[in-house]
């Protein structure tokens, strides 16, 4: 895995020997962007994730990271990301300092992100960070001497979600090359689709982006993928592409990111997947969603075997177990 490199001109903390470690390509590294991963890295992570799944099904938990401590620092709400990192750490025998409500921490007294990071790394071996500002995880790396794992930085990236999304696709459909993946909903503010689209550019896939005009995939991401030769197409109507879709990746309209509430009202509920929608889909395809859903997929879809979004969460725990084991050096 590539080392996260801060933008040119910024001096990285000299005490952070990111990369150049001989004891494992992931050991001691921060995970900030999916751009750090090449295909062999992904295969390695997924191989470890499969071992984790096997171990969990056989013995539930084991002591690989006994004595290690993870800090979960969340400046934005989370159910799945926070609790799956906690479950992952505890199933590996480690423990977690959970700051899920920064308003009860010294952040509410005005403590800066760098100072909060410096504090937590005195106690923990790695820090999982979710923050409302794009670039916050990169900023944390600048001051940290312990690995930082980006659990979502505003509208920026959500790399561990993209890894678990890809692991879901590989596990459910057995391959990635040759697939048509349709991303639907809020492609402008949805950080999960930003990371997933970039990660999929390592494969030979066709990407369809279905969204209202004002929620299109950011131009810089489309251009970046264009440069990699990825086939991309934009549509307003799901019907145009549903029949060819192998993975339908549905997202929530990110209400909290809109400056104008009227604009949100104009696009909320723009797409709703129901059993009737799926009549037009392949028999062998999957429906994914990073969750939470707020009406984009009706509950009647849950019973359809193609609905993979609950299984996706479980794959996520195995991927996060693998990442923790690799970063903390015990895999
Ligand atoms: C996503 C997120 O936080 O970006 N949730 C998650 O981590 N599973 C998606 C969302 O909030 O819509």
Structure description:
It is built from eleven helices and nine strands. Helix 7 (about 220-225) links the parallel strand 6 (about 205-210) and strand 7. Helix 3 (about 115-125) packs across helix 4 (about 135-145). The chain is of the alpha/beta class. The chain has helices spanning about 40-60, 80-90, 115-125, 135-145, 160-175, 190-200, 220-225, 240, 260-265, 275-280, 310-325; strands at about 70-75, 95-100, 125-130, 150-155, 180-185, 205-210, 230-235, 245-250, 285-290.
Layout of helices and strands:
Blueprint: H1 39-59, E1 69-74, H2 80-91, E2 95-99, H3 113-123, E3 126-131, H4 136-143, E4 148-153, H5 159-173, E5 180-184, H6 191-200, E6 206-210, H7 219-227, E7 231-235, H8 239-242, E8 247-250, H9 261-267, H10 275-278, E9 286-288, H11 309-327
Parallel strand pairs: 1-2, 1-3, 3-4, 5-6, 5-8, 6-7, 8-9
Helix pairs in contact: 1-11, 2-11, 3-4, 5-6, 5-11
N-carbamoyl-L-aspartate (NCD) is lined by residues 80-81, 152, 158, 161, 191-192, 252, 290-291.
């Amino acid at each position: 895995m590539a080392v996260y490199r801060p933008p040119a001109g910024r001096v990285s903390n000299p005490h952070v020997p990111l990369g150049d470690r001989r004891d494992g390509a992931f050991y001691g590294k921060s995970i900030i962007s999916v751009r750090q991963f090449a295909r062999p890295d992904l295969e390695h992570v997924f191989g470890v994730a499969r071992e984790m799944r096997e171990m969990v099904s056989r013995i539930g938990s084991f002591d690989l990271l006994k004595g290690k401590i993870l800090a979960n620092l969340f400046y934005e709400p989370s159910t799945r990301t926070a609790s799956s990192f906690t479950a992952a750490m505890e199933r590996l025998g480690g423990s977690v300092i959970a700051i899920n409500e920064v308003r009860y921490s010294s952040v509410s007294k005005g403590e800066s992100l760098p100072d909060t990071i410096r504090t937590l790394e005195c106690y923990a071996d790695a820090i999982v960070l979710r923050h409302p500002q794009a670039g916050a995880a990169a900023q944390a790396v600048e001051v940290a001497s312990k690995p930082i794992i980006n659990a979502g930085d505003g509208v920026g990236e959500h790399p561990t979600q993209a890894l678990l999304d890809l692991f879901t696709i590989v596990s459910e459909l057995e391959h990635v090359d040759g697939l048509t993946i349709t991303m639907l909903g809020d492609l402008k503010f949805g950080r999960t689709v930003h990371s997933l689209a970039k990660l999929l550019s390592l494969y030979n896939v066709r990407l369809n982006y279905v969204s209202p005009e004002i929620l299109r995939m950011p131009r810089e991401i489309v251009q970046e993928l264009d440069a990699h030769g990825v086939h991309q197409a934009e549509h307003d109507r799901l019907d145009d592409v549903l029949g060819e879709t192998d993975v339908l990746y549905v997202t929530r309209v990110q209400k909290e990111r809109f400056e104008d509430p009227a604009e949100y009202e104009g696009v909320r509920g723009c797409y709703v997947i129901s059993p009737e929608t799926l009549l037009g889909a392949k028999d062998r395809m999957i429906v994914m969603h990073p969750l939470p859903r707020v009406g984009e997929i009706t509950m009647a879809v849950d019973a359809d075997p193609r609905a993979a979004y609950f299984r996706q969460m479980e794959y996520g725990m195995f991927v996060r177990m693998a990442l923790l084991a690799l970063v903390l050096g015990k895999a």
